[in-house]
Every structure is written in C-alpha cells, then in structure tokens.
C-alpha cells in the first residue's frame, strides 16, 4: 500500500505548485496583472482536462501502469525545467510554464482512478483507494508548498526544482514497482494471486 500512496503525488504537486506559487509569481513578480493570470489559469484548467482525457483513453489501450510511468517520468523532467522556463520573465514563458505543468498534472490524474481501484481487493478497495488518494494529496499538495519558501529563499529555485524532481523520481520508481492492472477483473481477490 505505501507504493500506491505515491503514484499520484506528482499530480498534486504540479497542481498545487501552480495554484500556490506560480500564479502568485505571475501576479507579484512578473506583474502580469490579475486578469491575465486568471485567464492563463482558466486556460490551463482546460488543458489539464485535455490531459485527463488523453491519458484516460491511453491507459485503456497501453495500460494504466505504463501511462503513469510515462506521466511521472515527464513530471520528473519538468520539475527541473519549470523554474528556468518561469524565470525567463516573459508572458509567453509564464503561460508555457502554467499550461505544461497543468497538462502534466492531468496526465497523471487521467488513469489514477481506475489504476488505484484495480490495485486493491474488493473487500477493502474503497478504504484503500481513499487512503492512498488522500495520502497522495497530502504529500503532493501540502509538503512542496510548505518547503518551497525556505528552500527557495535559502538556495534558489533551481535547488527547489531539483528537490521536486527527486520527489517525482521516487514516485516514478513506485509506479515501476507496482503491477499492471489493465486486464485485472475488479471482482478477483488480489490476495490469492
């Protein structure tokens, strides 16, 4: 179960990083204006929805695990690139940073519901999925914003990006260690396999 708690962490990290840090950075540091930042945010929400739709379908074709491995690998790479792109200081770079980050979050959110449900035996599926999904939300949505300020002020954004990349890489390794569930029937007892 601990491995299952890690597969969605990068999605929450990307989502809450945009909501807490990147939007504030665009409004206060780049001085893009709240209307512009809000419009980019709305556009990125639509792009995130497209990411969810793409990987939901993709996970039905190539497998949930394979899709999540690719998406978490992409999140690992993007964590390193995000801050250099963001700090280019232009509106275009800001928009790319927000949209790509939310698209990657959508890539992970797409297959996560079916994947987590298929990982657990029927008799404790609801509890296990709820626990894993919420643990992912806490680890990915709360920890990075809490540590961002101290790390960025002491060492800069490149170090914080590296910390995020390491965290995403650990989650990628957890995806690799978990089984594929694409062809697994939901009514099969997992403990007997």
Structure overview:
The chain has 193 residues and is mainly alpha-helical. The chain has a single domain, classed as Up-down Bundle (Growth Hormone, Chain: A). The protein contains 7 helices and no strands. It has helices spanning 9-29, 34-62, 64-86, 91-119, 125-141, 143-155, 157-177. Helix 1 runs antiparallel to helix 2 (34-62), helix 2 runs parallel beside helix 4 (91-119) and helix 4 packs antiparallel against helix 5. The protein is globular and about 55 Å long. It starts with 8 loop residues before the first helix and ends in a 16-residue tail after the last helix. The mean pLDDT is 89.
Strand content: under 5%
Can you identify the CATH superfamily? MFS general substrate transporter like domains
CATH architecture: Up-down Bundle
N-to-C CA distance: 16 Å
Q: What's the story with the biggest beta sheet? A: none
Order of H and E elements: HHHHHHH
The whole-number mean of residue pLDDT values reads 89
The secondary-structure class comes to mainly alpha
Q: Output the CATH class name.
A: Mainly Alpha
Specify the overall morphology.
globular
DSSP summary, beta strand count: 0
Query: Number of helical segments?
Result: 7
CATH domain fold name: Growth Hormone, Chain: A
Percent of residues in helices comes to: over 70%
| Uncertain residue segments | none
């Amino acid at each position: 179960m601990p491995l299952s708690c890690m597969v969605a962490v990068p999605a929450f990290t990307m989502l809450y990083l945009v909501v807490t840090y990147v939007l504030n950075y665009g409004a206060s540091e780049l001085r893009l204006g709240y209307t512009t930042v809000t419009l980019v945010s709305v556009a990125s929400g639509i792009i995130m929805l497209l990411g969810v739709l793409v990987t939901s379908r993709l996970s039905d074709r190539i497998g949930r695990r394979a899709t999540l491995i690719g998406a978490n690998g992409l999140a690992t790479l993007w964590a390193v690139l995000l801050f250099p792109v963001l700090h280019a200081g232009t509106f275009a770079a800001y928009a790319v940073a927000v949209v790509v980050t939310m698209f990657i979050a959508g890539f992970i959110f797409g297959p996560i519901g079916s994947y987590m449900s298929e990982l657990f035996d029927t008799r404790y599926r609801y509890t296990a999925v709820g626990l894993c999904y919420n643990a992912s939300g806490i680890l990915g949505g709360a920890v990075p914003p809490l540590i961002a300020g101290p790390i960025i002020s002491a060492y800069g954004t490149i170090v914080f990006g590296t910390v995020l990349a390491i965290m995403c890489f650990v989650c990628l390794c957890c995806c690799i260690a978990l089984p594929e569930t694409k062809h697994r029937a939901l009514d099969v007892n997992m403990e007997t396999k």
